[in-house]
Design brief:
Layout lengths: L16 E2 L2 E4 L2 E2 H8 L4 E4 L1 H14 L5 E5 L6 H8 L4 E4 L2 H9 L7 E3 L6 H10 L2 E4 L2 H14 L3 E8 L9 E2 L9 E2 L3 H8 L4 E8 L2 E2 L4 H19 L8 E3 L17 H12 L2 H4 L4 E6 L1 H4 L3 E13 L2 E6 L23 E3 L8 E7 L8 E9 L6 E4 L21 E4 L1
Parallel strand pairs: 4-22, 5-6, 5-15, 6-7, 7-8, 8-9, 9-11, 9-12, 12-14, 14-15, 17-19
Antiparallel strand pairs: 1-2, 2-3, 4-16, 10-13, 16-17, 16-21, 18-21, 19-20
Helix pairs in contact: 2-9, 5-6, 8-9
Length: 412
């Protein structure tokens, strides 16, 4: 009886291979490690980021603005690089706001999201003149009080928690009780109250889910988001100038994942937006994307410091691990752990192959970068490369755990 074939990773062909070494930003991995000065390190390829934005520009309707959600990767050099490619940035803290402003982005192109904005966060947002995505009625009242004290008017969107979710998404951000946004049925009363306050209504932010690989599911969520915005606009204290319909575009991480059909997403969105200009003539339609812009452009690199056999199984022990890359260890949202695409970066294809587990230096069995994966036979000193590491890598990881030094980050 034939067993079904095990699912495999989507081809990781974004980086060339030269003399069996991965090439990132035009530099072979061993040379890149030498330039970085030490391992572990993250490297982000600026060419791949440019190509990803160009792919979206090619297939999305021209009227759609692309915003970068900085939470995916707030490295200042990455943000500065993207600032010249996209139409705006979304920040989630006063710290990210400083990085965005330092990158030269104009305040009108910056929005501030997050369910727990402090008084200091709101003060900073008001002072900078950016758009605040209001996540609750209480946040609205707090911002209005600050604006009143300062004799200013705050620019605001209402983040809406819709009554639907993005189906088949890796992370559901809408539908049901959520800490994010204002329940759609509560928004009309909030909009009425907004008209009485020192707040300048800009529009809506409707985010229903993330990390989705199905164009049909994304289209359904986008259609429902536009329909919801049209209903809510009837209660708004002013014209809708910004309609942020979220993102949700995913990238393939695990065996069996396919790639999102961006061309189909674009065609679907064009049909959804047909006639919207007549109904919301001042609305700027925004797609807010994070991992889709930077995720595949990054690689995490660590070095094999020991090769050990335990009861017949080979473990490659490296100087990197979950303290630098929590997501790749399977401890950042995975219910059942699956392997990221991982290779021996200086022996990518390698004539000799073996089944190994790649582990880090931490005193926990959770410190696992690859479990029972077929890879080229590696020795002490070889480089392990984890693909799909440009988003939610370093800044989403517990770098202080056990006191190991942080990794280097480079944009090449």
């Amino acid at each position: 009886m034939n067993r079904p074939a095990r699912p495999v990773h989507a081809p990781m062909d974004q980086f060339p291979v030269l003399d069996d070494c991965l090439v990132v930003g035009g530099v072979p991995l061993p040379e890149l490690a030498r330039r970085a000065g030490r391992t572990p390190f993250y490297a982000y390829d600026r060419r791949l980021i440019i190509e990803r934005v160009e792919l979206l520009r090619t297939h999305l309707p021209r009227r759609v603005h692309i915003h970068y959600a900085m939470k995916a990767n707030p490295m200042p050099e990455v943000v500065s690089h993207l600032a010249g490619l996209v139409d705006g940035l979304d920040v989630a803290s006063a710290g990210e706001l400083r990085v965005a402003l330092d990158a030269g982005v104009q305040p009108e192109g910056i929005s501030f999201a997050g369910p727990g904005k402090t008084e200091a966060d709101l003060e900073a947002a008001l002072a900078a003149g950016i758009v605040v995505n209001l996540e609750s009625e209480g946040e609205m009242e707090r911002l209005a009080a600050i604006a009143s004290r300062r004799g200013a008017r705050a620019r605001v969107n209402v983040r809406v928690n819709p009554d639907f979710e993005l189906k088949s998404s890796g992370m559901k951000m809408g539908g049901g009780p959520k800490p994010f946004g204002v329940d759609a049925e509560r928004v009309p009363a909030m909009l009425h109250r907004m008209g009485e306050l020192r707040l300048e209504f800009q529009g809506f932010h409707i985010f229903s889910g993330a990390q989705n690989l199905r164009a049909d599911a994304i289209a359904e969520a986008q259609r429902k988001s536009v329909e919801l915005a049209l209903r809510l606009a009837q209660h708004a204290p002013g014209p809708v100038r910004i309609l942020n319909i979220g993102g949700g575009f995913g990238i393939p991480y695990f065996p069996g994942d396919g790639r999102l059909d961006v061309a189909l997403v674009g065609r679907n969105l064009a049909a959804i937006l047909e006639g919207l200009e007549a109904r919301l003539p001042q609305a700027q339609v925004v797609l807010e994307l994070g991992r889709f812009l930077v995720g595949e452009a990054g690689v995490y690199v660590c070095r094999v410091i020991d090769r050990k056999i335990s009861r017949g199984h080979c473990f490659l022990v490296t100087d990197g691990g979950l303290h630098h890359h929590l997501a790749a260890s399977g401890n950042f949202g995975q219910v059942v752990r699956k392997n990221y695409p991982v290779v021996v970066g200086n022996r990518v294809r390698g004539a000799q192959r073996e089944i190994v587990s790649v582990v880090g230096p931490l005193c926990t069995p959770l410190d696992l970068l690859a479990d029972n994966m077929e890879m080229a036979k590696a020795d002490v000193g070889d480089l392990i490369a984890v693909f799909q590491s440009g988003a939610y890598g370093l800044t989403a990881s517990p770098t202080a755990f056990l006191g190991h030094p942080p990794p280097v980050e480079i944009l090449v």
